[in-house]
Amino acid sequence: HIAFCPHGPDDGCDCRKPLPGLIHQIEDALKVSAEGAWIVGDSIRDLEAGAAAGCKTALVRTGKGEKSEYKLTSHPTLADAPVFEDLATFVDWLIAQQP
Ligand SMILES: [Zn+2]
């Protein structure tokens, strides 16, 4: 499923990150809960949206990720989120976690 927010910052929608509405749209479309799922993003807003929906959070250094990593270290609730070079590195790590 592909979901995106078509709104601007002044539109007052609930799907623009860091609000979790986009994740709730995905939950509705797939009829699953995102709670406990991973959200992987390159921005703090991505992780905040995921955390608000009960997701585990990971940051990647690609895109805006390197700038975000600097902010992440002082974030009040996300500072412990793991950081990966890119999405492939995250996936390799996640697969290695499986029993
Ligand atoms: Zn929106």
Structure description:
- The chain has about 100 residues and is an alpha/beta fold.
- The chain has one domain (about 20-95): HAD superfamily/HAD-like (Rossmann fold, 3-Layer(aba) Sandwich).
- The chain is built from four helices and three strands, in the order αβαβαβα.
- A three-stranded parallel β-sheet has the order 1-2-3.
- It is globular and about 35 Å long.
- The model has no long low-confidence stretch (mean pLDDT about 95).
- Bound molecules: zinc ion (ZN).
- Zinc ion (ZN) binds near residues 5, 7, 13, 15 and 16.
Query: What's the CATH C level?
Result: Alpha Beta
In the CATH hierarchy, what is the architecture at level 2? 3-Layer(aba) Sandwich
Low-confidence stretches: none
Mass-distribution shape: globular
- Residue-averaged pLDDT: 96
Say how many strands there are.
3
Strand order of the largest sheet: 1-2-3
Helix coverage percent of residues? 25-40%
Query: What is the straight-line distance between the termini?
Result: 27 Å
How many discrete structural domains?
Answer: 1
Order of helices and strands: HEHEHEH
Q: Briefly note the structural class of the backbone.
A: alpha/beta
The number of helices is: 4
By CATH, the superfamily comes out as: HAD superfamily/HAD-like
Q: How much of the polypeptide forms β-strand, as a percent range?
A: 5-15%
CATH fold-level topology? Rossmann fold
Main β-sheet description = 3 strands, parallel
